[in-house]
Design a protein that fits this description.
Two copies of one chain form a homodimer. With about 375 residues, chain A is α/β, with parallel strands linked by helices. Chain A has helices at about 120-135, 150-160, 180-195, 205-210, 215-225, 230-235, 255-270, 275-285, 295-300, 320-330, 350-355, 360-365; strands spanning about 5-10, 15, 25, 25-35, 45-50, 75, 80, 85-90, 140-145, 165-170, 305-310, 335-340. In chain A, the strands form three sheets. In chain A, strands 1-4-8-5-9-10-11-12 form an eight-stranded mixed β-sheet, with helices on both faces. The radius of gyration of chain A is 20 Å and the shape is globular.
């Protein structure tokens, strides 16, 4: 069956009250759907994206060739089967693919917010999505699925909207961002902030798209290290030399250097530096227990059937961090959760790259 | 007994033939000694330093308070007992603490080499040290000890000067730098190269010492991530907030961010950017098997008693990389080596920080 991709942007004029006490008003949310909503609206699956993801999770648009970021996972006959489910993925607020973010015009001016954009949190991202779903007259969904920052959102949904999702599947994430992950974000943030071409936030986005932003490229390179593992890098790159300009030349490049350069500089063509700062901030301050006496108290709120999937060699969010969620749930008497550590040498990106290792688990978990 | 610190610089006018085919001429080597050379010169222990280390491995100079980088390990009554051994540590060529490096004057001019400095390798660093020892009339030593890049030198000594050391103790290192470690170096190199204040190598070192170099600070932050582990960062920093400027401020700082900032920017006051580029290059192209048919063929050359110590949670050079050396030695019939994986959550820096975990092993290994 056809994937039936539809992309849309909703405009909201009521204020969005943020966790910080500030408001966003007005704001837009861009989202994409796949498949068909059934009559009793019981077949909705929400997909939450990661740091640099977007609403474009599956398929390709007409006349374009950019495939959705989780296309191997979502589609006709795939783990999240669009023949059966009506799938929605929204671009988070703070991002740069249509939903309101730091480079959106600050009403009533036509000037971008830049640093005047409020700090948003994962809870805020989830709240905005919940409002969108109400607007779409969807008040209950079959499942919410996400990995990395998407997995944070999925858990946040479970705690703050306990009656919303029957099932939650959260992968490759944590209950509160740990120092190691904050450190990687710090390198990226510092590299962006100190790049003179960032112009202390007053850059021309068009210039950056065309000429790149070295600081953001450097930061993204650090990010890529955290997405892989020592083992997968060895497997992928080894000590292969990319250029034949001689072993002893100071700027000869190993394959891995070339990979980081390409991905680092290319990234600056399609992602906004201020969005990167705001979203990494949201990730750093993410903590499920905020507003509760403990993680256990927060997790007690969850009513959904919860599936926690970690990857054994995830270097960004260690598998024991997800195990801690499972342990905390058991401690507060939750008997409706499942924890599975998936054996993988790949590292954090396994949730995007090694779909084969968990697709059967997910399609089974999605069954009623 | 007194540590008997002596610091000296030897000037060499004969050319140093480098692995690249280029030469250094003339060149200086700065070194430091502790303890007293015995009559038959049988009590020499060579210490090799890591990336940003120096010849100042132990003790403090008069009227200064900077303690040597391995002071907990070397001294009177310590693991490397200076009451017993005559300890020598030399600053590697390419570095910036007295031995010839990229900011040294290029003879016969008084202008620094900068990019005209030749690429040096770990083998070159070792060769220069060997020449220094000959000059000091030392032709055989009791032991060579080093961690990280120091461990690379120790192994390189074993292969290329097989009759030189009775014992070699190499820790927290590898047989050939793997993609993960190269990737961390890449982030640092790129951050330095793209910083406009680096002026494509034509910076004023005094200005950098005073004002810092953001690119090098960012690179060093990435380095610090690789020196620790997820577990030790969690233990050390957790999610503690350093400043009380509010959880939701975009630039509020976690303890770990503050640590990285401090260490990153402070680093630019005491280390030279071009030395950083040259030494990380030397680390990247380090491969014991270069010039041999295989790692085993290289290791066959070793005659010294060899001790290999890895740290279980080293994220920069994984413990299995040292195990591979041990396995390759066994495969070529070497029966005079010992491999020990030291349990530690600390990460790579354990060789500097958790001396208590291996000091007894080392003092035992040093006994005849």
């Amino acid at each position: 069956m056809s994937l039936n991709i539809k992309t849309n942007t909703k405009h909201f004029t009521n204020p969005l009250y943020l966790e910080s006490g500030r408001i966003l008003e007005p704001y837009d949310i861009t989202y994409e759907t796949y498949g068909t909503l059934n009559e009793d609206k019981s077949n909705v699956v929400v997909i939450c994206h990661a740091l640099t993801g977007s609403h474009h999770a599956a398929g390709t648009y007409e006349n374009e060739n950019k495939i959705g970021w989780w296309d191997s996972f979502i589609g006709s006959g795939k783990a999240v089967d669009t023949d059966k489910y009506f799938v929605i993925c929204t671009n988070v607020i703070g991002s740069c693919f249509g939903s309101t973010g730091p480079m959106s015009p600050k009403h009533p001016s036509h000037e971008p917010y830049r640093y005047k954009f409020p700090v948003v949190t994962i809870k805020d991202m989830v709240k905005a999505q919940r409002i969108l779903f109400s607007e779409l007259d969807i008040h209950k969904v079959h499942a919410i699925i996400g990995g990395s920052m998407g997995g944070m959102q999925a858990l946040m949904f479970g705690i703050h909207y306990p009656d919303f999702a029957s099932k939650i599947i959260s992968m490759a994430t944590t209950h509160a961002t740990q120092a190691w992950a904050i450190a990687f974000n710090k390198v990226a943030q510092e590299a962006i902030l100190k790049d003179p071409d960032f112009k202390q936030g007053y850059y021309d986005p068009q210039v950056i798209k065309e000429s790149g932003l070295a600081g953001m490229a450097v930061g993204r390179m650090a990010g890529h290290i955290s997405f892989l593992s020592q083992e997968s890098m060895r497997e992928k790159f080894g000590r292969e030399y990319r250029l034949t300009d001689g072993l002893y030349e100071l700027f000869g490049r190993f394959q891995v250097e070339s990979y980081l350069e390409y991905n680092g500089y290319n990234f600056t063509k399609w992602f906004d530096p201020l969005s990167y700062l705001y979203i990494t901030k949201a990730i750093n301050i993410y903590d499920l227990s905020r507003g509760f006496d403990s993680l256990g108290e927060a997790l007690k709120k969850i009513k959904s059937e919860l599936h926690l999937l970690s990857f054994s060699n995830d270097q960004l969010f260690k598998n024991f961090e997800m195990k801690e969620i499972s342990d905390a749930l058991s401690e507060v008497g939750n008997t409706n959760h499942f924890y599975k550590d998936i054996q993988s040498d790949y590292g954090h990106d396994a949730f995007l790259v090694e779909v084969d290792k968990f697709k059967d688990y997910v399609s089974e978990a999605l069954k009623n």
